[in-house]
C-alpha cells in the first residue's frame, strides 16, 4: 500500500483507518490524533503547567515527546514502585529521556516516601498487588500535581487500555466506574484535572512512534502483571479487531460520545460530603455510619497501614 498522504512507499498500515503511511506522515497522523483528543475534550491549553506520569513504557514517553514537540509545558513524574530491576530500568529510561529533552522530571520512591513497595503488598488480604499499585499511583500522581500547582495531570492510557477497561466495567456493570471513565476529568476540589490524550491511538501505533523517533523505552511488562484480567480483555478485543478492524474504536468512542453523555452526564460525583483524610489531608468520603466526631481516613492511608503491618511483622 502507498502512503495515504503523499503516495510514496508506506512503512505502516492502520487498518481501522484503512490507511497506510510513510514515516513522516505517520508522525503527522499521531500528532493529529493527539490534537483531535485535546481539542474535542478541551484537555489542555498552552498556558497550562502539565504533569505527565511516565512509567518508562512506550505510551507515556511517546506522549511526553508529542506534547513537548507541540509546544506544551510538561514536566514528568516517575513513581518508583520497588519492583526490582524492572523498576530500576524504567526509572533510568525516564531520566535519560528527560535529560535528552532538557525537561524536568520528579522522581518519587514509594518505599522512601511511604515505607512500603509494591512487592510488599502481595501478601495482604482483600486487595491484589495490582490493586495496591493502582491505588498508590492515583494517590501519588494527584498529590504531586496538587502540591506542585500543576493545572493538569496526563497519563499515557491508549485506545487498547481504555477499551479493555470499558469491557471489564461493562461485563460487571460497574456503573460508578463507567461514570468516571472519560478522556478528561475536570479538577474537583482536591482532585487534580486528569487527561488521557492518547485514547484515540492504539498500542501498536505508539510502539511504531517510538521506533521512528528513536525513543528508548522499556519493552518488558511488569513481572507482577502476568495473568492480570485486563490483559485477557485486551486479547479478546484484539481477536475481534482482527476480524473487524475498527471494533475497539467503535466500542470506546460510541460509549464516550453517546452512552456516557446520555446516561451519566451530570451524575459525576461532586465533592459533596467529601472530607479531608485525618492522616494525610487528601479528600475522602466520610466514614459510613459515622458518629459525630469520628475521623475519616482515606483508602490510601488505610491500605498503607495494612501493608505496613505485614512489613513490620516480617521484619520483627
Ligand atoms: P499502567 O497502569 O501501567 O497501564 O499505566 C498507565 C499509565 O500510568 C502510564 O501510561 C503512565 O502514564 C502511568 N504510569 C504507570 N506506571 C507509572 C510509574 N511507575 N510512574 C509514573 N507513571 C506511571
Ligand atoms: Zn507520506
Ligand atoms: Zn489519607
Oligomer category: single chain
What's the story with the biggest beta sheet?
A: 6 strands, mixed
User: What order do the strands of the largest sheet run in, or round the barrel if closed?
Assistant: 5-4-3-6-8-7
- Residue share in β-strands: 5-15%
Distance between the termini: 65 Å
Stretches where pLDDT is under 50 for at least 5 consecutive residues are none
How much helix is in the residues? 40-55%
Q: Name the average pLDDT.
A: 92
Query: Given the structure, what is the number of helices?
Result: 11
Q: Shape, please?
A: globular
Query: What is the C-alpha radius of gyration, as a whole number of Å?
Result: 20 Å
Annotation, overall tally of beta strands: 10
Global structural class: alpha/beta
Write the layout of secondary structure elements.
Blueprint: E1 12-14, E2 19-21, H1 23-40, E3 49-53, H2 58-69, E4 73-80, H3 84-101, E5 105-109, H4 110-114, H5 129-147, E6 152-154, H6 159-171, H7 175-180, E7 184-185, E8 194-195, H8 203-213, H9 229-243, H10 247-264, E9 275-276, E10 283-284, H11 299-315
Parallel strand pairs: 3-4, 3-6, 4-5, 6-8
Antiparallel strand pairs: 1-2, 7-8, 9-10
Helix pairs in contact: 1-8, 2-8, 6-9, 6-10
This protein binds adenosine monophosphate and zinc ion (ZN) (2 copies).
Amino acid at each position: 500500500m502507498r502512503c495515504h498522504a503523499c503516495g510514496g512507499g508506506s512503512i505502516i498500515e492502520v487498518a481501522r483507518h484503512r490507511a497506510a503511511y510513510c514515516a513522516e506522515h505517520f508522525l503527522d497522523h499521531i500528532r493529529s490524533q493527539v490534537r483531535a483528543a485535546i481539542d474535542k475534550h478541551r484537555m489542555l491549553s498552552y498556558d497550562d503547567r502539565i504533569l505527565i506520569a511516565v512509567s518508562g513504557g512506550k505510551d507515556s514517553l511517546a506522549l511526553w515527546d508529542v506534547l513537548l514537540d507541540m509546544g506544551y509545558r510538561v514536566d514528568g513524574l516517575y513513581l518508583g514502585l520497588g519492583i526490582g530491576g524492572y523498576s530500576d530500568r524504567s526509572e533510568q529510561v525516564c531520566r535519560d529521556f528527560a535529560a535528552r529533552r532538557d525537561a524536568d522530571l520528579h522522581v518519587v520512591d514509594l518505599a522512601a516516601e511511604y515505607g512500603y513497595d509494591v512487592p510488599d503488598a502481595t501478601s495482604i488480604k482483600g486487595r491484589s498487588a495490582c490493586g495496591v499499585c493502582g491505588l498508590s499511583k492515583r494517590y501519588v500522581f494527584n498529590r504531586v500535581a496538587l502540591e506542585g500547582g500543576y493545572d493538569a495531570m496526563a497519563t499515557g492510557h491508549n485506545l487498547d487500555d481504555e477499551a479493555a477497561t470499558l469491557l471489564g466495567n461493562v461485563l460487571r456493570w460497574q456503573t460508578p466506574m463507567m461514570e468516571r471513565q472519560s478522556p478528561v476529568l475536570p479538577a474537583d476540589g482536591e482532585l487534580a484535572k486528569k487527561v488521557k490524550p492518547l485514547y484515540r491511538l492504539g498500542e501498536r501505533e505508539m510502539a511504531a512512534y517510538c521506533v521512528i523517533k528513536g525513543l528508548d523505552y522499556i519493552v518488558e511488562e511488569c513481572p507482577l502483571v502476568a495473568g492480570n484480567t485486563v490483559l485477557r480483555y485486551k486479547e479478546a478485543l484484539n481477536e475481534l479487531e482482527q476480524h473487524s478492524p475498527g471494533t475497539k474504536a467503535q466500542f470506546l468512542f460510541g460509549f464516550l460520545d453517546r452512552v456516557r453523555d446520555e446516561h451519566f452526564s451530570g451524575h459525576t460525583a461532586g465533592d459533596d460530603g467529601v472530607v479531608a483524610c485525618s492522616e494525610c489531608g487528601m479528600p475522602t468520603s466520610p466514614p459510613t455510619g459515622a458518629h459525630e466526631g469520628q475521623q475519616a481516613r482515606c483508602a490510601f492511608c488505610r491500605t498503607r497501614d495494612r501493608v505496613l503491618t505485614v512489613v513490620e511483622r516480617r521484619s520483627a
